[in-house]
Design goal:
It contains five helices and no strands. The protein has helices at residues 13-16, 20-59, 65-73, 83-107, 111-134.
Length: 136
């Protein structure tokens, strides 16, 4: 926004030139939003994989466990059709989402935002530890 055309005595000058506090607040909000969105994307990848596993198991409840694993792995491309590799990738997604959420707390402006991030941290940690202890 070009504000050089307006003289400083102009009444609209106060509304056109943001002060340092609003610039700082807007930068904090951008950082908070970035951390929130990135953490949610990684958490979405993790939860989608878990939901896909639950769907594959529910479809093959009458078959042995190994057949359920094969059905689950067939949903992925050939390069990712390794159960251990998928579990490690899911654990990495969980840890990355935990990092983004924990760094996002630093940029939260209100207590409600902090509480929301803490709730997301609890959810992400539960899903991550589930992946660690199952190791498909």
């Amino acid at each position: 926004m070009n504000t050089k055309r307006h003289p400083k005595g102009c009444l609209f000058y106060l509304f056109l030139v943001p002060n340092k506090v609003t610039i700082f607040r807007d930068n904090l909000m951008k950082k908070y939003s970035f951390h929130l969105v990135m953490g949610l994307l990684f958490l979405l990848c993790l939860s989608t994989s878990i939901l896909l596993w639950l769907y594959a198991v529910s479809q093959t409840a009458h078959l042995p466990f190994q057949k359920s694993v094969e059905v689950y792995l067939n949903y992925y491309p050939q390069s990712l059709q390794n159960a251990f590799l998928l579990t490690v990738v899911n654990i990495l997604f969980g840890f990355i989402s935990l990092l983004f959420f924990s760094f996002g707390i630093k940029f939260a402006k209100t207590k409600t935002q902090e509480k929301g991030l803490i709730l997301l941290i609890v959810c992400a940690s539960m899903l991550t530890f589930w992946q660690v202890f199952t190791l498909l």
